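User: Can you fold this complex?
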Amino acid sequence: MVIIMNPDATAENIKAVIEAVQSVGLAAKVMEGTQQKIVGVLGDKTKLGSMAIDAMEGVEQSVAISKSYKLVSREFHPMSSVIDVSGVKIGGDEPVIMAGPCAVESRNQLLEAAEIAAKGGAQFLRGGAYKPRTSPYSFQGLEEEGLKYLDEARSKYGLKIVTEVTEVEAVKPVSDFADLLQIGARNMQNFRLLKEVGRSNRPVMLKRGLAATLDEWLNAAEYIMAEGNQKVIFCERGIRTYETYTRNTLDMSAVPAIKHLSHLPIIVDPSHGTGKWRMIKPMSLAAIAAGADGLIIEMHPNPAKALSDGPQSITPEHYYETMTAISKLAKFLKDEGINPLND
Amino acid sequence: MVIIMNPDATAENIKAVIEAVQSVGLAAKVMEGTQQKIVGVLGDKTKLGSMAIDAMEGVEQSVAISKSYKLVSREFHPMSSVIDVSGVKIGGDEPVIMAGPCAVESRNQLLEAAEIAAKGGAQFLRGGAYKPRTSPYSFQGLEEEGLKYLDEARSKYGLKIVTEVTEVEAVKPVSDFADLLQIGARNMQNFRLLKEVGRSNRPVMLKRGLAATLDEWLNAAEYIMAEGNQKVIFCERGIRTYETYTRNTLDMSAVPAIKHLSHLPIIVDPSHGTGKWRMIKPMSLAAIAAGADGLIIEMHPNPAKALSDGPQSITPEHYYETMTAISKLAKFLKDEGINPLND
Amino acid sequence: MVIIMNPDATAENIKAVIEAVQSVGLAAKVMEGTQQKIVGVLGDKTKLGSMAIDAMEGVEQSVAISKSYKLVSREFHPMSSVIDVSGVKIGGDEPVIMAGPCAVESRNQLLEAAEIAAKGGAQFLRGGAYKPRTSPYSFQGLEEEGLKYLDEARSKYGLKIVTEVTEVEAVKPVSDFADLLQIGARNMQNFRLLKEVGRSNRPVMLKRGLAATLDEWLNAAEYIMAEGNQKVIFCERGIRTYETYTRNTLDMSAVPAIKHLSHLPIIVDPSHGTGKWRMIKPMSLAAIAAGADGLIIEMHPNPAKALSDGPQSITPEHYYETMTAISKLAKFLKDEGINPLND
Amino acid sequence: MVIIMNPDATAENIKAVIEAVQSVGLAAKVMEGTQQKIVGVLGDKTKLGSMAIDAMEGVEQSVAISKSYKLVSREFHPMSSVIDVSGVKIGGDEPVIMAGPCAVESRNQLLEAAEIAAKGGAQFLRGGAYKPRTSPYSFQGLEEEGLKYLDEARSKYGLKIVTEVTEVEAVKPVSDFADLLQIGARNMQNFRLLKEVGRSNRPVMLKRGLAATLDEWLNAAEYIMAEGNQKVIFCERGIRTYETYTRNTLDMSAVPAIKHLSHLPIIVDPSHGTGKWRMIKPMSLAAIAAGADGLIIEMHPNPAKALSDGPQSITPEHYYETMTAISKLAKFLKDEGINPLND
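Assistant: Here's the predicted assembly.
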């Protein structure tokens, strides 16, 4: 931590700051600038708690330097992690595709979607059984019945299942069943839930919060890893900005950012990221070209009839076309040895 | 709902849209513009689910018209609600002040803070026993021990207690104890938690999410009310924007907006809203002048030693000065009959 | 400037950074943390240009410390400035009110508006003769004809005139005529225009850019002052955020922020700041209570017929009611000696 | 336009709205919903100006439906436009690359950069002679001297020149010299400047404003085209969001959005879009895969010595590596017939 003093800070102000730092067992060094003095804090800054240096007399601002996450950090773990999810490797050579409807609506709809997902080449079937919805009067999911249909689809089409867990009580039953647990955007800082999935033995896909910074997202993953679960996968799903044409603004730069700051894999959700089915193909290709480890795509046998998130679901025809293009692109990048990241 | 067709939509496209609308029992009316056709949907649009009209051929865009919240709405309940919290009325003639430290740190700190809060004229003591923190390595609160100290402070200084509830399991114990339950910004869309406090018999203060729209916030309150708990108070605590000088951007216009859209009271949190102790006095005065029903202010006997959120806590001296000014301003507005709202 | 090195930066990396700093005549001091080294840069950092320290091997990040604006800064000029505009003092004891229509539409409309503005107690008449509009097909203003009507209204009702200047060529003619030049939000970083008004002898009201940080805004004022014109007044008019209920999010905390960082006055525009006429009264009262030096309010003899920005204009009745409340509030704050700012 | 009435609007309110609409020569149709009435406005809505329907009694909200831009719109011009810039085609089969330093710093620096740009395969040399800078004390460009060096580099290496024009007076001299005029982000709504380049005979590259919506951006292009200049190229360069890790958030979805809404080409600027040299390669590949018509990349012979924007400039080595990857990717997409867009 670096503490920047006001130009008119007194010697006493500086002495008080140094004593505050030393009172928690840290060392302080003063550096004299031409306009203002700077106090550098040396040692493990977590000792500082959030001791409110900024509120002391004569202090202009303090600047945190070291990162607060560790297990998630690439500094701590320089090699990229490959996460094994029921035999499918995420973060390895091949991008992993998860496809399926936003919500499980009926047995028929899900089995049909699963057949299409598998035929198109996806390794995972997605589908929400519990749906967090803005209004209490919107469709909230089929719950356990939905899980049963997902299980049937898994056996029949050889797909792995990723599904959202929205509350602590559901972690055990959903873990017993799903291959990959999803923490949704609205729960990214539901710390109680993060700890609970951290104690589960299932891999977790952590979606970025609606307005979460990269730093908050990395710290949310740290909550999971600190409880012992090392299998975390990030999922960029768009952030909230002033632009209203798209449902969210897909932050494609999160892909190289996460790859630089963390050893964990990252996949991209172009469906929630844009809210527009027309953008799924271009954003999927872009994500793979940017170095993403996979995609999660909303596809519906009949999007116009979807109970939830229809405008961002693609039809089976667009899905096949998109999958063919993704697959060719991934092969091209691998064959040519093009690594989008410079590291 | 109004469905706007593309200028080049065919008669068949329009027919398909009408049929889709009728298939869920709603009526459709076509209106011909000079450039494009519009289909109006009549009837209870919740029947539509989110049937994905937008994904149908020839559809440019659909625009929702009626609001999805009802119990929260002023249309539904034209008179302003006054919420009784253990005898203190929120939403009535006098602004209600809640003051105290961000986190309960120790018995001494809390009792000292309570004494100051009461002396300054606050009706409520605030103080977090369970703290949701971005990093798993930050101070997480004293938990039950903290609740015990809050209880002691309440008896000793005749204050009501407002404290945050961060997980479903804590709703029962905290409800047994606190006068007012706080749902924090990070949990504004933790729907499971909203339902649980909706089933409690305690009033709830619902903070606005970090990047929540007014509409999402109103719908979150609807989750609580739909479960039977009619005592909900909104708390504006700043939203996330691009500006980094302040910790958040305090959206003062949320006060007249909520007053217009809902019958429920709204208070303002200038401490989290700005993250700067210097701004607490001006933003408190502004909130009262804008028509807020109260304030929640972070005050700490010794902000420079605060374990959490020090830079935004004011000292006892500033607190007394601010309280005197607020109290005079509230009296002035009442005596002069100045109603900031036009309604 | 403080340069933070990577934990794995080599001794050579650090040497290269020090040499780069020294090559432009600045001194460097190395500070050893437990995790990483920090290089402090001493001396006038403007010598550094933007020498791209961040791109050097082993550098994690550089953090600027001293501010880039000087003439605007309160550090440079501790006493608050009172700006005299044709005899009206802005930044003094009394808030200054500017009122009038968004655009000058006709002689009758303007004279009627001026009469109402004066009767309500405003010192300034506002009204755009040149209107910057998003679409080239929207009404663009009456231009010179509009200036003529403003002049007539000034003589007839004893008001000062504030009007926008949107291009370099207009600075001379508008300066010859207006009492106060307005730089609009869209032109806040039109540096050529800022320099031109900096060379004029007319006071300038500088509106905040749609997405401008406080730092950028202060630097924009520095452009004007660096050319010799010391009479600059800030005007907060709302910033662009994700919220769509209001046209912009009025950043009320900009009032204490600017008062803390600069010696120049700041006024508030609740009309553009919210885009809703219902919010003008509460936001006006809030601004005065927060310490603003004045207000600029859109008022129209007949808002429903306004050619531009009707929804945010108030009627004469609301204007009178709002002015009465503002005037009482300002008197109350003065009589009671309540200073919203702690400084 | 669709006008949504309050549920409690009276018959008189509705009558007044209809009369207001008819008073400007438009037709109105009333549609009765179950909760509220809707008034549809038929005819050329530009006649409405911004007549402030929203401020009328009983009106809840009005929703604009038809777009305000025409010449820019794909509806108006269904075929994609290919813009010829001094013989280089933008918007055709091959992506166009513009490379070079942020600012022209010296003859040597520029000639060296031009040699590298040409060797790597770029068709355009970029380099600012006039630099708009946040602080008046930052390096502002070499101005005419810079143009001279650009001219020399053009002849020597057979590159086209793209350079920014920041003020009306500079349009003529820069048009006489440059192949492509750049309008920078800060000037996207400098309407006077847009009109001036609209009267020039040079193609214009229009950067997206820092916080511009797609709609505002398209309207800004309409200003240029409405003056007669049909050669406009969009350039996405990142938008301002709450995220601070990247300088801006590169909105990759702007590529398919602009391609859908307009017939004009769009290129991407990964350098300003991210502010980080490490992200240039992945974001360049992603942009091409998303369907962008080209890229503008900051490259500097020695980024660590750059006077401006060094952290986002790549070295010659990274530039060559990136160009090779881009070129292979573009060839792959063409050979395989992969069109990222579904249209």
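Chain D has two domains: 2-63, 83-336. The first helix of chain D runs from residue 11 to 23.
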